[in-house]
Amino acid sequence: MSNWFEQVYGLTVITPILGGRVTGAQHAAAIRAVLASQPNGARSPFARVPMTHFARWVVIDDIPTLDAPAREDHLASNYLLFAAEFDGPLDPYLDFLATAAPDMLTDIYSHCVAFPGVTDLREFGRYIKRCQVETTLLFGGYPNATVAQVLAALQAQRAFQTFAASAATQVPAARREAFDAMMRRLAEQAPTSPGGF
């Protein structure tokens, strides 16, 4: 099962893009415009899908030509590549993604062959699985940590950096008090997601 690396699932989906044009632009260009319009940071659609470690779409126009003696090869159509790494199994992730970002998915995949929409979660899941290819070389930056654990560690790192910057000028008793206060805050606070793709 190379789609898995510890608790991280690697999803790779290659979907054929429709030929022809829509509102004066090729479908591949329309997908690029939709992707370019997506907000980053906390407003990103993936900020609403908290188990996502990484996600990316790429429009593939053709196969690069290699030097001779390689045979020149071309694709029959343009393709949309979606690659994501996330915590947990595939089906719940697809359901969560379709529920959290239905407009984004519709705006993107309506330019792809045979897209069924996202209203029927089961049919959307089947569509993605039909276009899924096995992730043969999955590398997870944090294979033993969930997104929530990674965010908590980053939050602790930032808090400690702030503490360390001010600790050099404090007397030992004040330094200890500041350290204890930082540890209490970290224990009480849930990690905040930076969001973004």
Radius of gyration, in Å, reads 22 Å
Helical fraction equals 40-55%
Query: Roughly what fraction of the amino acids lie in strands?
Result: 15-25%
Query: Mind summarizing the main beta sheet?
Result: 5 strands, antiparallel
Structural class from helices and strands? alpha+beta
Figure out the total of helices. Answer: 6
Overall mean pLDDT stands at: 86
Question: Secondary-structure element order, as H and E?
Answer: EEEEHEEHHHEHH
> Terminal Cα separation, in Å?
26 Å
Q: Give a count of the beta strands, DSSP E runs of length 2 or more.
A: 7
Shape: elongated
Poorly predicted parts: none
Outline the secondary-structure elements:
Layout: E1 4-5, E2 8-16, E3 21-22, E4 25-26, H1 27-37, E5 52-60, E6 79-87, H2 90-100, H3 102-109, H4 121-131, E7 132-133, H5 147-167, H6 172-188
Antiparallel strand pairs: 1-2, 2-6, 2-7, 3-4, 5-6
Please give a quick description of this structure.
With 197 residues, the protein is of the alpha+beta class. The protein has six helices and seven strands.
Fold and architecture overview:
40% of the residues lie in helices and 18% in strands. The chain has 197 residues and is of the alpha+beta class. The strands form two sheets. Strands 1, 2, 5, 6 and 7 form a five-stranded antiparallel beta sheet that branches. Strands 3-4 form a two-stranded antiparallel sheet. Strand 1 (4-5) and strand 2 (8-16) form a beta hairpin. Helix 1 (27-37) packs antiparallel against helix 3, helix 2 (90-100) crosses helix 4 (121-131) and helix 5 packs antiparallel against helix 6. The longest helix is centred in the C-terminal third of the chain and has 21 residues, at 147-167. The chain is elongated.
